[in-house]
Amino acid sequence: MTRIKLLLILSALFLASGCAFSNYYVLSTASQPKESYAYKPQVIGVEKVTVPEYLFKREIAVARSSSEVTFLSGSQWAEDMDTGLTHRLIAFLQKKFQHPGVYGYPWGTDRQPDIKIKVHVTRFIAQGETVYLDASWEVKDMRTDRRALKLFSTTVPTKADAGSIVDAMNSAFAQLEEEVARGVKEL
């Protein structure tokens, strides 16, 4: 009898923890650049990517309308989005410029970086059959104070399931990464 009780308790704990029915997703794996740029011996600093509050929850958010957000049950982020997207951008820039000298804040270097990057995501969500990504980004040369500040917006088609939404979000962020890298190159 005690064995049955123990099995019931363990089963209840397993189900309550959500392990039995949850799928976990990440966006922190850097995309592969379509082309790489020539190495520049500059240290690049990336500030933490800022994201909307609804991305701080572990459940994947979807918009039912422009003012209503719901969360997909059984589908969760396996990481904090701001941290994951920051790590992804750093890894992408390292690949793009073939240069390991790309650091997150705090910079991890003895001196101020030569180039500083800020990315502020204002909308990153699926609504209907579309993923929307709106952001602003700034690339600043710390020596000359020259800067590029741009708005970014893209849409990527998706289906309603979590896997399709995550794939579309991955594609949308890859477009943003490419644009930020062009901004660094042209500065």
Summarize the structure.
The chain has 187 residues and is of the alpha/beta class. It has helices spanning 2-16, 81-97, 162-186, and strands spanning 23-25, 44-46, 59-65, 68-77, 102-104, 115-127, 130-141, 147-157.
Q: Please give the alpha-carbon distance between the first and last residues.
A: 73 Å
- The strand count comes to 8
Mean pLDDT: 88
Order of helices and strands: HEEEEHEEEEH
Low-confidence stretches: none
Main sheet attributes: strand count, strand direction, barrel closure: 8 strands, mixed
By DSSP (H or I, 4+ residues per run), the number of helices equals 3
Shape: globular
Q: How large a portion of the residues is in β-strands, by DSSP E?
A: 25-35%
Q: Pairing-aware structural class of the strands and helices? A: alpha/beta
How would you portray this structure in words?
This protein has 187 residues and is α/β, with parallel strands linked by helices. Helices cover 30% and strands 33% of the residues. It is built from three helices and eight strands; from the N terminus they run αββββαββββα. Strands 1, 2, 3, 4, 5, 6, 7 and 8 form an eight-stranded mixed beta sheet that branches. The mean pLDDT is 88.
